[in-house]
Amino acid sequence: MHVFSTICGAVLVFVVLLDAFETVVLPRRVTRHFRLTALFYRNSWVPWRKMAARIRSTTRRENFLGYFGPLSLLFLLALWALGLIFGFAFVQFGAGAHLQFNNQPVTFSGVLYHSGETFFTLGYGDIVPASTTARALSVIEAGMGFAFLGLVIGYIPTIYSSFSRREIEISLLDARAGSPPTAAEFLARFGNSQGQQILDGIFRQWERWAAEVLESHLSYPPLSFFRSQHSNQSWLGALTAILDTTALIIAGIDGLRSDQARLTFAMARHAVVDLSQLFYPRYDPSAPDRLPKQELEELRKRLTESGVQPRADDYANEKLSYLRAQYEPYAQAVAGILLINLPPWMFPEKKRDNWQAGPWDRAVQARSLAALGARSAVRHRIEDHF
Q: What mean pLDDT comes out for the span 348-357?
């Protein structure tokens, strides 16, 4: 019995330490299916997602989903701590001898209590290791406790630093492609620029952003569950919008070169495909078409009215269809798992950007327009200008 307890404890300690190493230290995706972190997120996200699906309000649902990322991080750290405490308790119970200050026999519950106070370096002294093995294990566990504290101090700020860098570009996309971002709005605002340097500069930024998201989310998988600041923004939605935009340019737009768009598309596609593997998705052949033929014609018509001339021949249609097939199934699969609404290619009507919305806007505008005696047509012309 004692030998079995020692073996179980040693295996538990090894599994927890290996899982923490792979999650925090190892900068690459682990393809092994049995992982403590993967099991934790798989069994905690599913019920959380089901509860969120019952919330009808989009804003409230996003707020509820936004709690999961930070809370899961804290519970994951607590799970690792409990695993080490129980693991060392099993090893201590099987391989060590302990003395209690009132000379009562030390049961497993007493050893578990001793393991907890050793791990957190409390050192009350009411239970004392009496053998060389028990003393050595206590020293090792106390060292693990200090290392775990250092892990928490270093891991959480790193997570939030990566999250902050990710959200900066997503916020910048608000004024560039709308809220939520769409390919039609992006090209309407930048596709008819006098020079291509502005457009290529934006694509270069997003090429680097996609590479950073790929690196950070593979190194720290819990980041994928962190929601953006606004309910109509997300890292997956921004990635999909950039892929939509670059796919349209590669398919052919008169007057626009596709050199930088190809590089950005390649990096963004790499990111969405590799990150989708974190969730073990399944291909869904019945997924809805994000851009039916009728909407594609309407999209081209709207772009033409904005001064952008997309090509509409058979070659352009086949090329766009091929490019969409390279990333849309992966994006749709991840969106279904994370309950993220992918942005459409365009909206039927023009929407306000997030920067244009404010709690006092109506009152302030009504007062200023009344003072100027302005008519509603003037107000609409001003809004269209922005």
A: 76
Q: What is the DSSP string of 70-132?
A: HHHHHHHHHHHHHHHHHHHHHHHHHH--EEETT-----HHHHHHHHHHHHTT----SEEE-SH
> What pLDDT does residue 354 have?
76
**All domains of the chain in start order, with CATH:** 2-153 (1.10.287.70), 162-355 (no CATH), 360-385 (no CATH)
Count the Cβ atoms, other than its own, within 10 Å of residue 124. 10
What's the CA gap between 50 and 225, in Å, rounded?
15
What kind and span of H or E run contains 328?
helix 314-338
CB 343 within 8 Å of CB 240:
yes
At residue 154, the pLDDT reads 81
pLDDT at 383 over 80: no
Between 102 and 156, the higher pLDDT residue = 156
Q: What is the pTM of this model?
A: 0.84
Q: What is the DSSP letter of 253?
A: B
Q: Provide the terminal-to-terminal Cα distance of the chain, rounded to the nearest Å.
A: 75
DSSP type of residue 231 = T
